[in-house]
Amino acid sequence: MRLLFAFGLRPAPYANRHALRFHDDLDDHELVEEREFTWWTKFYNSMYWSAAEMCHEHKHRLVIYYEELEKQAQFGYLQDWAVPVQLVHGVKFKKHGPPKEDIYATLKLQLKLTPCQCPVLEDPGGGGDMVRNMSNPIHPRHQSTLQSLGETVKLLVRVYVVQGVQMRPRDVKGDSDCYVKLFLGGKTFSDRAHFSPNHSNPVFGRLFEMEATLPGDHMLQVMVYDHDKIKDEVIGQTNIDLEDRWRTRHRATVGLANEYTKSGYNHWHDVKLPSEILIDLCQKRGIQAPYYYGNVIEVDGMLFGDETLISKDEELQERLSLAVLKNMDKLPSFGYKLVPEHVETRSLCRDDFPNVEQGKLQLWIELFEANIYVPSPIDITPVPPADFEVRVVVKNLVGIQAGDKNIFGKLMSDVYVIGWCEDEDKRQSTDIHYRSFAGDAAFNWRMVFGLKYSPNEDLMVIRRKAGLLEEIEFKKPPIIYLQVWDKDVLTKDEYLAALELNLSNMYAPYPAAQLCKPYPKKRKRINLFKRKVINGWFPLQSNAHPSQRSQAAVQNGKMQLSIEVCTDVEAVNRPAGRGQDPPMALEPPYRPDSSFNPLTHPCKSFQHILWPVIRKYVLWTLLILIVILGLVLFFSNLPAKLMTIPLE
């Protein structure tokens, strides 16, 4: 088996089958522009990683914990090295509140029971059981751990404050003007000058760098204030025990990145390389150093393959070492996980309302020894979005199955298309193509959408009013939503089909309707913010609308679109009107003579709708009436004619 692994014949299938899944549908150079990506790209790509709003698979990700890191059971609540025990000095009684224990200190301890055989005392009645010498010496590994606990450690602490979530407003008129203040070791670090005005979900993107000494300066206090002209008010606070993160075996000092990269927005920012970390852990555990077999690595009697999907050009040794570090819980000598690169979400509370959450704060912490080389910090400064204008011209529809029947029992549909980008309430609609019998419809109708898009985050920024002075901001992938509907007069309009287009990661359209089919997995993708203009046919999706129980009727529907993305400067220099209006007016489409509103054109309704159907019946009726009238006249005049004939 090892010989096969050494020659690389079947390493990855045995070690990691997931790594063999190679996705070749993202082969366009337009999508891979890492120089434009920042840490926020990785953050939002992790937040919107779902089937409905899937972002690019070629972007790196991290882990987002929606609770505190010390509340994660997979990391032993960061109490594997010691358990905190609160020392109480009586109980405090309040007039308008429940009694509260007076906690004056916290003792961290770890109890370990080891079976041993103690010698028999000469005088058992004389006592002295507690002063016996230990029969079994302490393990050297435990001795070094105990010695390290008694040493003073100077740390460099980096606190990355990402954003606030659902902050409770302290102002009566609107949201709070939030900023962050930190307290550590008797020092205060305030960020009052960079407050976020009038936001319930403020985006901070701030880095705080400070020094601490363990075990003295072990508690970090992070407070969020409301900026005010008279007096700033406290919104909430959270306390973080730095010693638990430094001492735990889960290595909560610097999170492990999902993939190893030397440079770029996913660069490795730990002091040690993955291979050095792995060797250090093996030495502390007393097992053999890792051994490499071609494309796999052997650690603790187990084989692991490369799990890299994006950064495959990096050193194989580091990639394999990182794969082992990510699977430490599978090793028999370890059996626990290491903390990955993450962002934790911490609840904010106040002293006067200890059990009422005042909001949440998303952040992460990195710890380094202060007397060694420390890598440069990560820049998480948010980049403001840019204004864009998206122009979507709906040209034609093909393959729309008729959903109604006219009075003569013939299948037909009155088709129209609606579309929106940021807000569904601001959707735009084409005109109606009446009486579509063959499943085809022509529009040549332009929709114009404005959006704020950040190329670094690959998301569009949406701001909405949530109150009189309140404005909320959230981010979503830049998706254009198009839906096909059937217009009904007496009942609700019927939903037929839909199309969702991610402008930065969309499938390339087909050049002709005959070639248009459901997209395969390896279909080429394009970034319209770089391509600017695209024309072609897109297959429609026949998923059911949430408001209707029945399944959509379209199975092979196709839509011809022309999409153009312009910057705000380009939109001002080359303005375009909506619909078919100027500037850059569009020509009306060619439609059959029967395509019109029958309620507003009764004469045309008779000419193009009723007359073609009843024409033969009317002609036959007239012919029969003429024949009958001729016979009646003939037989009614026959007696008079007979009387005029002379008799011989």
Automatic annotation (TrEMBL):
The keyword Chloroplast does not apply. CDD domains: C2E_Ferlin, C2F_Ferlin. It holds the Pfam family dsrm_Ferlin. Its main location: membrane. Keywords: Membrane, Repeat, Transmembrane, Transmembrane helix. It is found in: Membrane. It comes from the Eukaryota. One of its GO terms (cellular component) is membrane. It is a single-pass membrane protein. Coiled coil: none annotated. SMART domains: C2 (SM00239). The chain crosses the membrane at residues 617-635. Residues 138-255, 374-517 form the C2 domain. InterPro entries: C2_dom, C2_domain_sf, C2E_Ferlin, C2F_Ferlin, Ferlin, Ferlin_C, Ferlin_DSRM. SUPFAM superfamilies: C2 domain (Calcium/lipid-binding domain, CaLB). GO terms for biological process: chorion-containing eggshell pattern formation; egg activation; fertilization; regulation of embryonic development; sperm capacitation; sperm plasma membrane disassembly; synaptic vesicle exocytosis. PANTHER family: FER-1-LIKE, MISFIRE, ISOFORM F. This is Misfire, isoform J.
